[in-house]
Amino acid sequence: MDGFTKRTEEKRRAILEAARTLMKQEQSRFTIHELARAASVSPVSIYNYFGSKEQVILHVLTLLTEKEMSWIEQRIETQVPFEELLIDILRRKIESAGLFDDTVLAIVTTDPSWQQLAARGYAAFRNLIEYGKMTGAVDPDISTDAYLRYVQLMQQAILSDPKLSTAQMTDTMHEYFHFFLHGIMRKNN
Predict the structure, then answer these.
(1) Rama region for 7: left / alpha / beta (φ>0; ψ in -120 to 50; rest)
(2) Lowest-confidence range among 59-68, 83-92, 176-185?
(3) Mean pLDDT in the chain?
(4) What is the dihedral of CA 75, 57, 14, 73, to 10 degrees?
(5) Of 97, 80, 81, 96, which is closest to residue 165 (Cα–Cα)?
(6) Dihedral of the CA atoms 25, 31, 35, 37 (nearest 10)?
(7) 140-177 as b/e: b if 16+ CB within 10 A
(8) Nearest CA to 38 among 61, 63, 21, 13?
(9) CA angle 59, 16, 168 (to 5 degrees)
(10) CB-side neighbour CA atoms (13 Å) of 106
(11) C-alpha gyration radius of the chain
(12) CA–CA distance, 73 with 94 (Å, rounded to integer)
């Protein structure tokens, strides 16, 4: 790799890392100038490499999603116990929920490449449910599609509620995932 290409890649990586940090703090409410300052690049570099702040956000979310899908696939391949894997996935999902606000949701729901990525994510979660059925951890009498719809409804309900702050969203996700793991009936020991 020549020096120019290496510097270009370093700048792109710095922009994406800075954007992820800013998204954790402010979701989409940062400016190109704040991003440029955080990445130690010029605003022009951001436009040259990505075209817009929205494209930077989309790249960040795409990389995170691809990383998560690879992580899940690797964990299934190494046969991590389903319960442990599901808890880890849900914990990671709760952590990433703070990146989303209405603007971020609008960006991802209108982007065709994100729709393809979402389809791959859906397939990965289908594989997870099938893995759970195979290991005996998931009720095989409930269709995989029903599990998938339930999780999708949970996510939509949480992410579309404008009254939820990021902290409340995290708490609500904890409660919804408790429902998913344990149901609503109290168990007598």
Answers:
(1) alpha
(2) 176-185
(3) 85
(4) 10
(5) 97
(6) -110
(7) eeeebeebbeebeebeeebbeeeebebeebeebbeebb
(8) 21
(9) 80
(10) 6
(11) 19
(12) 19
Q: How far is CA 58 from CA 19, 22, 65, in A?
A: 10, 14, 10
The answer, as to whether pTM is greater than 0.85, is no
Token pair of 152 as six digits: 């999708």
The answer to whether residues 15 and 45 touch, using CB atoms and an 8 Å cutoff, is yes
Q: At what angle do helices 32-39 and 53-77 cross, to 10 degrees?
A: 60
- For helices 144-159 and 112-134, angle between their N-to-C axes, nearest 10 degrees: 130
Residues 138, 147: contact at Cβ < 8 Å? Answer: yes
pLDDT-derived band at 123 (thresholds 50, 70, 90) equals: confident
Task: Give dist(CA 40, CA 7) in Å, integer.
Answer: 13
Residues in the chain: 189
Q: Which two tokens stand for residue 14?
A: 């710095």
126: tokens are 């289908």
Per the listing, tokens 């979402």 go with 118
